Amino acid sequence: MVALMLLAGVSGMVPWFGPIANDLSDEFGFSLNQINWFSITLNFVYLPVSILVPIFLKKYGTRVTCYIGAVFMLLGAWVRYAGTPHSLSKRGAYALLMLGQIFGAIAQPIFQVLGPKYSEDWFNLKERTTVTMLVSVGQSTIRAIAQILSPAFSTTRISILYLGVISTAVLPFVFLIGEKPPTPPTYSASMHPLSFFSLARAMLGREPAASPAHMTVRERVDFAIVALEFGVLVGVITAFSFLTAQFFEPYGYSEDTAGLFGATLLLVGLVAGFITSPLYDRILTHHLALTCKILCPIVSATWLSLIWAVRSNNTIALYVLMGIIGGTSITLLPVALELAAELTRNADGSSAVLWLTANFFGALYILINGALRAGADANPPLNMHRALIFQGTVICVCTVSVVFLTGKQVRRERDELKAKESEGISASGSA
Question: How many structural domains is the chain composed of?
């Protein structure tokens, strides 16, 4: 599990360029929009790869799929560094940095999508949500570290070198990831895994009622709501993490402070995730949908408040708002992943759909936010105020749909029933 956390985190170090975007522009001569395409390209490459991950998992298994991800992670890190020599032309440097991002984009979904399926295969009902949280929030932790580390080096070239060093250091952990335990921990883990295509057919209402992949109309609506909320809220965090310097530096905040804003969001989320996930496994076992209904309005209102909060000399308020966004959004992350698996009974397929929507929205946010950047003659120059208005409005409108969420946890109910039946048979045998 620790190995998967580290690999998911390092493969997802998208925010590495966020706090140093302006310095990267100065040193390499790239425009800010060109730098934004480093993240946009990653988001778009992620989309088809995330669909392929469940197919590879079904055909080759967990271990081989992770080996493939590790190879691309290493390639991405060092191809990026190959683009840093001063002898390269600006176009040559940009091409290699972009190619490195593409390789990294292939690695990232492999470790992200795997999380819910790994927890289903290896852990029981009292541990599943916690493990999903640890994998997804472990990634957020390393992203937070990236927000602090990337501006700490003297030049962006050295910063990119250390990204390669970190990627190489975690690579051996891939050999610690196991295939499956000898004894399945739950009934769901013992079942033959459903394919991604069966999920697609179920969402279209094409699976027969007798099929394990069949979903009712209510389940299909709920899954669509969860996918939308996940995409909107995780996508905006991805985009915001990448654009931190561009949001805050026009108002006089340093790149270090911008990085700390992003790190605060992620680290507070980590603490909240550690506190809440065991509660969902042991106490609030049937309240995943209720959690979404409570937290979505809070996080929406906080994103909206940034329209007025992002201004000069407002550091404390911004730290508080980043903490609220992190605490609510990252608490929702494993909740949504687990709820999607409950609704579909297809842990890797549903995870692929959720991460696909998150990266789709992340790319849209970055593209549109870049287009909404003010000009050099604005006050302050190059500010992102219109982008904040756009983000806050989209999030508030989209999260209204959570009101209609029912979120019946079918997979958990089935596992609990089978566990009771098994206990009853064991008790009868002992008697």
Answer: 1
